[in-house]
Amino acid sequence: MAPIIKVENISKTYEGGFHALKDVNLDIEEGEILALLGPNGAGKTTLISIICGLVNLSEGRILVGGHDTVSDYRKARELIGLVPQEIALEPFQTVYNGLRFTRGLFGKRPDPEFLENVLRRLSLWDKKDAMTRELSGGMKRRVLIAKALCHSPKILFLDEPTAGVDVELRKDMWEVVSQLKKEGVTIILTTHYIEEAEAIADRVGIINKGEILLVEPTRSLMRRMGHRELRIELTEPLAEIPAALAGYDLEFGADKQTLVYAYEANGERTGITSLITDIKNAGLTLRDIETKQSSLEEIFVGLVKEQA
Q1: DSSP 84-134
Q2: CA distance 154 to 103
Q3: Which is it for strands 59-64 and 33-37: parallel, antiparallel or unpaired?
Q4: Is there a shared CATH topology between the 5-218 domain and the 226-294 domain?
Q5: At the topology level of CATH, where does 5-218 sit?
Q6: What's residue 97's pLDDT?
Q7: Does residue 2 sit in helix, strand or coil?
Q8: 215 with 205: CB under 8 angstroms?
Q9: Which residues form a coiled coil (predicted)?
Q10: 212: β partners
Q11: 304 vs 227, 252, 297, CA distance in Å?
């Protein structure tokens, strides 16, 4: 099956010669959640804006649901809902009228029942008659999400949707995302909360300096690039690591009572069994053992540093 979004060799160069995107290729499958990660200025928002038709591309082509975003803009755009990073709402418009107006812009018939359902899902129904200027920042963020959903898009872009909002809204947001995925909506998100991307994304794309470094299933990436640490707490502190354990490249933890052993998460042989045996043979007594796997954030930081 063809991808619902196909990005082919796109580049974006602004006046003055700044290359925001450089020969980007990306296929996004229908019904998946793709987390797009990158440092500030990496090109995430530019890429999303080009796909959504808000910024003109310099080179390349983008297909959304088989529709070219330039030659068949309207057909492509009606498939997309966008929650932008910046909060921009008409201050003297009520929440409900804002949704009704946005739905009309996409040529959709009035559907009060549908709009009520959208507002209830986002805990906004009791605010439907409130002017947006009266709402808190978190509530305004909810309104942006509601506006993005009001024309039943097949694709939803979330550009830093939980930036600067409270824990409750973040939790509600991810519940809505999970439900939309079950309904077949394709979701592309950028976020600084990388632990959330790790938890909900089917695939992760990492972008830096306008280039896609990789796009890979989250679990596969964690297995391939993840590292693990074995932290071994001893009953007594050591002055130095015994020579008999030199072959394991051990390091001390925060104190000299903990030994840290790093190994590959996907390695066939970890060496843990022989390490434990050699520790006992060296006359050391174990108090506790703990393992820790590297997070997606650590993998992300490592990749970005490599390109720097």
Answers
A1: -SS----TTSBHHHHHHHHHHHTTPPP-HHHHHHHHHHTT-GGGTTSBGGG
A2: 14
A3: unpaired
A4: no
A5: Rossmann fold (3.40.50)
A6: 95
A7: coil
A8: yes
A9: none
A10: 207
A11: 17, 27, 11
DSSP 164: T
Q: Output the pLDDT for position 34.
A: 95
Domain boundaries, the chain: 5-218, 226-294
300: left (phi over 0), alpha (psi -120 to 50) or beta: alpha
Please give the structure tokens belonging to residue 22: 């450089």
Tokens 């009060």 identify what position?
A: 112
The answer to whether the Cα torsion of 140, 100, 88, 78 is positive or negative is positive
The neighbour count for residue 183, using CB atoms within 10 Å, is 9
> Considering only the top CATH level, what class is 226-294?
alpha beta
**Per-run averaged pLDDT (10 residues), the chain, 308 residues:** 92 90 95 90 91 93 95 94 88 94 92 94 92 89 91 93 71 83 93 78 90 87 73 89 88 86 68 87 88 69 67
Nearest to 44 by CA among 221, 300, 306: 300
What pLDDT score does 267 carry?
56
CA distances for 28 relative to 25, 36, 129, 261, 262, angstroms: 10, 11, 38, 38, 35
CA distance 170 to 252: 38
Tokens of 102: 């946005």
User: In the chain, what's the furthest Cα-to-Cα distance?
Assistant: 78
Question: Would you state the pLDDT for residue 268?
Answer: 59
**CB-count exposure of residue 33 (10 Å: 0-12, 13-18, 19+):** buried
Q: How far apart are CA 243 and CA 21, in angstroms?
A: 52
